[in-house]
Amino acid sequence: MQWVTPPTLVDLECPDREIRRPEWVAFGQELDGMGLEVHRSKGAATPPPALLRVRCLAPGEAPSPDPAIRSISAENPAPAIERLLHEVRDALRGESFPRPSRVLLMGWDDGEVSTTLLREASWMATYARLMADFLDLRHLVRVPDLWLSRYDAVVVLTDHLPAAIAESLVATLRRYLEAGGAVVLPGGIDDDALRSLTGVDGASGEAPLRAWTCDPAFLPGADGMVFRIPEADADPMPLYRLPTEARVLCGARGGRDAPLAFRISKGRGTLVAWTVPLLADKSARGLLLLSLMEASPLVSALMDMHLFFVDDCPLPASGRPVQVEAGAPEVPDGEFYRDRWWPDIHRLVQDHSLRPTFAFVLTYDDHMPDQGTPGTYAEGSPSLDLARAISAAGYEVDIHGFNHQSLSLVRNEWSVGWSGIGSMRTALAMLRTEYQRVFGKDRVPRAYVAPSNFVQRVGKEALRQAFPEVEVLSTQYLDEGPILGQEFGPDPEVPALSNVPRISSEHFLDGDNAQEVLDALVLPGVFSHFIHPDDLLDPERSRGRDWPGMVRELTSLLEKVDRAHPWLTRRTAVEASPHLRQWWKAGLRVLRESDGLLVRVENPPDGGLTFWVRPPRDREVRIQGSCEEVFRSQVESRVVLRSNGGACGIFWR
């Protein structure tokens, strides 16, 4: 990715008597029609940046040795000028056909929506492996139309345009659309100039946005799902009446009378717009990508990871009574975990071919190392029985903590505050000793799941000193208040650690978390979920269900994910680490043809690089070359492919 500035000048070093000739006058008029200006450098030592530099040669003068300068003889210049115009057109369009598939992400830093969209679009392009250029939209006031035509799509990353140049910007985008381009407006259309590009009239009213849905042909897995917005965050949404030819992608109140996202044809091009800036959030990166792929067929890489974490497990038992199902007598929590929870979860793991990651914790409280090792896994205890049953089943057991306090020197809601790195190291050394007593001296954990999804840099350093074998750090993907979410890949503070965050939790897929789950399955192409053994004991996490009801809900969640994304590769957190490091080194190159895309994969991870494309709807699609087709949905116009290297073609008719 790079920031670009569109070319606006052709530098011309010619005497006045030459440029008055009809051939040069016509040349200037052609350039003006392309949106280019002619700059007379007159031999300046430092001429301004230009698309091309042209010099008129005096009789007998030798051509310039500088390959960047086009030398034109004064004798019969017409043929050379015609060749020069062809070169200008080719330079504006970019590379020769077939050309690289490339998108233009256009924004500015005016306001929270604009800056957030810029940040999230950069991550979208990074994860999807799109060839993307960034442009300050204030540079689009005078841009050659041919230069803009090199892009498969233009994304306008703002909720408003600069008033002084809005009319000119919209005119440029309208010409691009009419010529066959694709434009995406993810920041809403409350701005009059942006809305004028869609052809939608002003809002007829507004209503609180409390819940919304998406067409499952747009968002895979969205069938039957209603995404809820907390009452405190239910901002008013404008109500627009769309043209009859517009296709609603997402909406509230049934969709068409309260559209949130829609697609409409403009000239020979396609426009996708959101009526409110819902996409200005990390949890909507997938929706931003889908909007782009709905406007123009593109190829997006997928991380291809199905991760299932069990936090706080094995865990200490408190003896608290638990009612497992309605009408049944209560049992101590340790017996529930060992005798009912574990057999049911073990069966579910086997039924769904999961590769779970368990996270061992010694105590839930603020017990510190100067108080000694907690006796929570005594011989004969339900906790020790559970721990060894999980280990005997061959599952990956990593660590969650000595206690449930975040490794932080600062006292906050997640930690009582450690006295220093020495105290952290002591606690972690005691955790290591207890881990090997429980699981065997030959066992070492290689992943750390941070309590409350928070850890300071000093905590990471203490962790690496006590557990040099640990290579994975897991917190959470999405931001939550002051806790900033992780990205998948090397940790920016301790690069020896791979960040493998979790995206969702609990036993339910419903209006509270479904949009986040489905979005991350699109981008970066990951299902990363966690549960706790004691979810039943928390009325909020159990939704008031008994244990059999929670198992049914978790089963339904996993089945829903498998139906929409059956190709996902199951991995433990530790297995994800080398995959991620290889994935980030892989190359994905895409060329555009009139009826398809040419894809080349270089240096793929073990097992291949997975990617997907959304061809134009209602077309017959064929795959040629070295790619393996792993999934296809005609309804969604979605094709998922995997390549172990080499080239393949995706064609439609």
Termini gap: 31 Å
Give the spatial strand order of the biggest sheet. 1-8-7-9-10-17-16-15-12-13
Query: How many H/I helices?
Result: 16
Rounded to the nearest angstrom, the radius of gyration is 30 Å
Count structural domains. Answer: 4
Which residues form runs of ≥5 with pLDDT under 50?
Answer: none
Q: What is the CATH C level class of the largest domain, in words?
A: Alpha Beta
CATH architecture of the largest domain: Alpha-Beta Barrel
Under CATH, the topology of the largest domain can be stated as TIM Barrel
The helix content, as a percent range, equals: 25-40%
Reported for the largest beta sheet, the result is: 10 strands, mixed
Shape: elongated
Which structural class is indicated by helix and strand composition? alpha/beta
**Number of distinct beta strands:** 36
Per CATH, the superfamily of the largest domain is Glycoside hydrolase/deacetylase
Q: What is the mean pLDDT?
A: 93
Q: Strand fraction band? A: 25-35%
List keywords for this structure.
653 residues, alpha/beta, Rossmann fold, TIM Barrel, 4 domains, 10-stranded mixed sheet, 5-stranded antiparallel sheet, 16 helices, 36 strands, 25% strand, elongated
